[in-house]
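DM from R.C. (forwarded with permission)

"hey, sorry to bug you on a friday — could you get me a structure for this? deadline for the figure draft is monday and I only need the backbone to look sensible"
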Amino acid sequence: MVKEQDLKQLVMEILNEMSRGAEPSPTQPSTPPQGAQEAPSGQEGELPDLTQVDIRTQCLVPSPKDPAALMAMKAKTPARIGVWRAGPRYKTETLLRFRADHAAAQDAVFSEVSDEFLAKNDLQVVKTECADKDQFLTRPDLGRRFSPEATETIKRLVGSPPKVLVYISDGLSTTAVETNAIDTFKAMAQALDRQGIKLPKPFFVKYGRVPAMDVISQVTGAEVVCVLIGERPGLVTAESMSAYITYKGTVGMPEAKRTVVSNIHSGGTPAVEAGGYVAEIIKLMLEKRASGIDLKL
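My reply, with the result:
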């Protein structure tokens, strides 16, 4: 049986060999296509961090017939195309990258938003009826509801009914929230301020699902409610956040009444740009008094 230490050493040798560039064989190009990125090399005794390589700039196909066309195609999508193979199997680097991205997705789902993030941004916490992360993942219905005590806390935090209310929730990716939420909120607040709309101080809903915003809309009397929430992560990124927005939302309302701006992350719509765009949508909602499919964007 192969020992774990021996297996780790073997993987390190393979990756270091790839990063140095092995002597080209008849099926391998001597130089990568122009603009292609090579795998990083790790420190002595450490595995290189494959997640630091943008797979859109990495050519893993030996001797492609049209390197320029391949790289142009890869540049347009983060999907795993042109990864090559060893017989019928993925090559080592591709498999390890898959496992690393899958691990990042799992971390985003199962981890908690840090106390440091909440304290740094002075976010008061209101929890849904979920007792813990496990219950949040297995009982979505509890992530849509608040206890009477939590409801009173929301009323106290918001105060008099605002025209627009924006809050933050963990959802299914704490990584997305910690990476994008504050920059998005600040851009929204600045853009709405120019329209004469002052946003109340945001708060944080722990273990929150999207429809929790309907409860908040009803108890606060806000005309427009927007939640910045982490989306279910995939293998492309674990940092994708969305903004869900409703006009006079109510509990039990159809999902079609929500407007959503998704893919807010560095590889999609950057946080600051998304904040400005969401602010424009909110302005239009207030003018048209509608959201979701009733709002023509």
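R.C.: lifesaver. Strands lie at 125-127, 164-169, 204-206, 224-230, 241-247, 259-264.
me: no worries. The two ends are 62 Å apart (CA to CA).
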